Amino acid sequence: IFFFDCALVFTSPHIKICLFPTGDTSTCQVNVTQPRYKLAGESAHTVTLTCTFSALGCSSSEPQALWFRFFTNRHEDLCTPECRDVQKFKVHISPKNVSLQISSLTTNDSAIYFCGIAFSDSSSPRSKQTGGGTMLVKAGTEKHSTESLTSMIIILSLLLLYSIVIFTILILHKKISSGRKIFQAIAQELQKQRYAEHCQRPDHLEDDTVYQNR
Questions:
Q1: What is the domain range of residue 126?
Q2: Residues forming a β-bridge with 112
Q3: Which of 40, 97, 144, 164 has the most crowded CB, counting CB atoms within 10 A?
Q4: Residues 6 or more apart from 106 whose CB is under 8 A from it?
Q5: For residue range 142-181, what is the model confidence (pLDDT) as tens digits?
Q6: Membrane-spanning residues where (predicted)?
Q7: pLDDT at 207 over 60
Q8: 65 and 123: one domain?
């Protein structure tokens, strides 16, 4: 009877990825470490993700390097070990390091990248291991959104201030115009009253006034 176990590299409630079935044990032990975070600048078009591994008791043959990436609700097999898009993804391996080069970088490439190392000629469960994952963030979108929002707020504030100034000027002009009209109406009314009083004055009063003036 042969029992086969799975060298588990990642587990989630819905996803399991296994590298190779393993049977009997051996002395090969692999450890893989990755940087936790990688920030790609706004102007960056290419980025390189690295992982370091150590192999104890393993064969001298070159191990296989595998790369996966995980988004919020899905995952992609990038290089297992052949890369599915050789124009965008390239794997470089050395005795102690493995790197993944990503070209034509966009914000859609922001994800968590897992590096796996496997010695396929070994049956040890520890001969196939993955790192803890590197979170890649491509800068650009959030910055532009923040700058656009700030510019919009400034423009709206200036427009609001301009509207307040214009509205205030119109109100003052209206009040001044109303005051002038009221003053003119009062002046006309006083003039009418004076004219009426002059017309209603008796003639003998006018004669007395003329006599006194003389």
A1: 29-141
A2: 70, 135
A3: 40
A4: 138
A5: 444 455 556 667 876 777 777 777 767 777 766 676 667 7
A6: 152-172
A7: no
A8: yes
Q: Are residues 152 and 84 part of one domain?
A: no
Among 119, 141, 163, residue at a domain's last position: 141
Rounded to whole angstroms, what are the CA distances from 36 to 10, 33, 112, 192?
16, 9, 9, 93
pLDDT tens-digit profile of 54-92?
999 898 888 999 999 999 888 999 999 899 999 999 999
Q: With respect to residue 40, please indicate whether it lies within any of the assigned structural domains.
A: yes
